[in-house]
Amino acid sequence: MSIGKKSEAVKVVVRCRPLNKKEEATNQERIVEVDVRLGQVSVRNPKSSGSLLKTFTFDAVYDVGSKQNELYDYACKPLIDSVLHGFNGTIFAYGQTGTGKTYTMEGVPTDPERRGVIPNSFQHIFTHISRSQNQQYLVRVSYIEIYQEEIRDLLCKDNNKKLELKENPELGVYVKGLSSVVTKNIKEIEHVMNLGNQSRSVGFTKMNERSSRSHGIFVITIECSEMGTDGEDHIRVGKLNMVDLAGSERQSKTGAQGQRFKEAAKINLSLSALGNVISALVDGKSTHVPYRDSKLTRLLQDSLGGNSKTVMVATVGPASCHYDETLTTLRYANRAKNIRNKPKINEDPKDALLREFQEEIARLKVQLEERGMLAKERRRRRRNSMRMKRSISSGEVETPRDGEVGVVETVQEESVEDYWWKQQMAKTSANYKPDISRKLGIVDEKAKTVEELLKEQQSVEILIEKYKVSSFHTVFFLHADYTLNHS
Ligand SMILES: Nc1ncnc2c1ncn2[C@@H]1O[C@H](COP(=O)(O)OP(=O)(O)O)[C@@H](O)[C@H]1O
Ligand SMILES: [Mg+2]
């Protein structure tokens, strides 16, 4: 069930990075001006003699010296809060290669000053959860890459497997068989991100080219259970997509519609389709929005004109040599401002994992209570027999009192959740298929724990080492070895 809400526009912000060393060394002129107060970016054509500027206004603009926190606090924080309340949210980074998409989305995660949107969101989410009082949360993560219209699961040991998109009338579009990893704290979720990033770079010789031509989608699903005014528990589910898009430069170099489409088909169909979807949504004439033209637009259909709150961060460089690209990016971003979404809180969806966990936890609670009672009984007997012994040796006789409270064994002090996690870990190390790994019936998602992921990763690391030694043998080699190690 969803709770209806009115429509709202996509929030668009623009960030301009500093001149890089190469641009400085070649004395590139700065042609981009940013007026933070007015929210305006102006760009000057270096080829024209006059000082005519093209000016665009956005929800916010960020100058070369902008801090990661400034962008996060204004552009992203409210959206993450909404996701914590059960809305879907999407943050896109769009721009030419080398303009700061990855810097903005990821930055330097270990440096609080330079960490980007994704690690900042971890901090925000888990701080919120630790302060909550009457809610129960479950956070899980998936990480996808789309390259040449193929979807890869970056959190799966067989990360070269191509995944399929499926559609379900109730749940919309989803990736069949995608892994998700349940994370309990910042450390775990950071770890999962790092593993995904590593996996993105395994086995490909032209890594830079690949990463600039592929889309990375980091998905955090947050389930929150809380008692409603009706006295019943309700689960709200917010899904947060954080998207580091492929570099936009190729697309802008393709000219007319027909030609553009042909070239994009070879280079990056998804990015081209994204542009067409935005055009169709905002031109007011189109009756058809071509979401189905690419994997990216199908997967993120809700983020563009649907049930999601969406932020686009467009990144540009300041140097005169990139005038055309910069102008194209600003025009693209300017159009995206007019997209209207209809976000709503997702309440009690069918695929809530938390419901399953709650049921299991309730069962474990009973189990723990039984163990606690047994422990209590054992303790009472022990104390009584001690008393009897003491009494006998002193010649006095003392009868044990009924219902006497003994010291409870530590097992009772352990929270049910801790107990549950321990069980999962024990099962994992004993090579059992843990309950958490059950496929989520409807969406065919495979949830796993960080511990499971780590086990998989160890084998991946061995492979990376092997690969470094013998990068000659490319993907086939990796595949063959993987199967050997894991079968
Ligand atoms: N706002 C910024 N401030 C400082 N350095 C930046 C900024 N944006 C990008 N950079 C630097 O510019 C280079 C290219 O950025 P990157 O994020 O990799 O670009 P993209 O992902 O768009 O290809 C990196 O070395 C990055 O650290
Ligand atoms: Mg990048």
From TrEMBL:
Compositional bias segments (type: Basic residues)? 377-390
Q: Does the keyword ATP-binding apply?
A: yes
Q: Which Pfam families match?
A: Kinesin
What molecular function terms (GO) are annotated for this protein? Answer: ATP binding; microtubule binding; microtubule motor activity
Domain Kinesin motor, which positions? 9-339
- Protein localization: Cytoplasm, Cytoskeleton
Spell out the PANTHER family in the cross-references. Answer: CHROMOSOME-ASSOCIATED KINESIN KIF4A-RELATED, KINESIN-LIKE PROTEIN
List of residues binding ATP:
G95, Q96, T97, G98, T99, G100, K101, T102
Q: Which organism is it from?
A: Sinocyclocheilus rhinocerous
Alphabetically ordered keywords of this record: ATP-binding, Coiled coil, Cytoplasm, Cytoskeleton, Microtubule, Motor protein, Nucleotide-binding
Where is the region Disordered? 376-401
GO process terms (BP): cilium assembly; microtubule-based movement; system development
Report one GO cellular component: kinesin complex
InterPro entries per record: Kinesin-like_fam (IPR027640), Kinesin_motor_CS (IPR019821), Kinesin_motor_dom (IPR001752), Kinesin_motor_dom_sf (IPR036961), P-loop_NTPase (IPR027417)
Name of the protein: Kinesin-like protein
User: To which protein family does this belong?
Assistant: Belongs to the TRAFAC class myosin-kinesin ATPase superfamily. Kinesin family.
Source organism phylogeny: Eukaryota, Metazoa, Chordata, Craniata, Vertebrata
